[in-house]
Amino acid sequence: MLTRTDKLGDFMLVWPALALLRASLPAARIDVLVGPAGVQISQLCRYVDNVLVDHGQPVGEIADVIKGNKYDAALSFFVNRRAAAALWVGRVPFRLAPATKIYQVLFHGRQVQRRSKSLMPEYEYNIDLVRALLRHYGRVVPQVPSGPYLEFPCECLDQRLKEVETTYGFSNGAKLIVIHPGSGGSARNMTPERYAWLAGKISEFGDCFFLITAGPGEEGVALSVNDAIESAPSAVHFSNRGIEKFAQLIAVSDVFISGSTGPLHVAGALNVNTVGFYPRRQSSTALRWQTINSPSKRLAFSPPAWAGEDDMDAIDLTLAASIIGEKYLCGSE
Fold first, then answer.
1. pTM
2. pLDDT at 252 over 60
């Protein structure tokens, strides 16, 4: 049993660790406990057998299910009161978690990580926890499997691309660039006007179509970006058909651009070309929340050293657009 019950992006950064665990224990039953944000995407994870959901029900109900499933071990990638209590009451024989927060006392194994220092990517901290679990049981620790960690059949993606082309009327010779300007309450983000300005500068490097996406509650931000784009064709896509359809849309894009938020990490799991805009705050850096796509497929921009750590207006978008255009639009990839 593995737990990560917070936001979508946090859960996506567990996938390399899940891949490692499955590679080491191919016949094991691997279940996950997720929060509401992780339900739909977890059902698409090929490394997972069953999904349990913490939707706010009494902790005892979760513990009863855990007890009934008779897990041999549990790993909490992030310690919170509800997950810790459910595993403890559920009498899982061995429980492992990061050595943080008071709830760590409910675990047998406590791995010192000091994530708050942000010395390496979040997904690497998660991988280290799986390595510790495997070492506890004397298992050989294989190399971490490479991505993409989330995939769809080619015919499914061909159909999705045709649907997008028909709906929004862009040429199949153009690069499909998805901009997701919403933050979902995550890290600090750029303004709609700056995303629109960036789109205009990127369009100077080639034939582009910009699809501005919005999740629930983000419609106004997406419309503002679209209205402000003057020099390139664009449209707004409201993601209201579930995370699977949205992930397929991301998968058929040539470039995915956003702040440090859940959909960026879905794009990373799909191994799509990504561009992330991050604050420089220690807990929110581009290193700590690095995407899980190949290094050649990711770009990250943050405020310069002379600016405030949350001053997203200080990011040089002329330079960013030049780097994005040359890397993703000029035939180098």
1. 0.96
2. yes
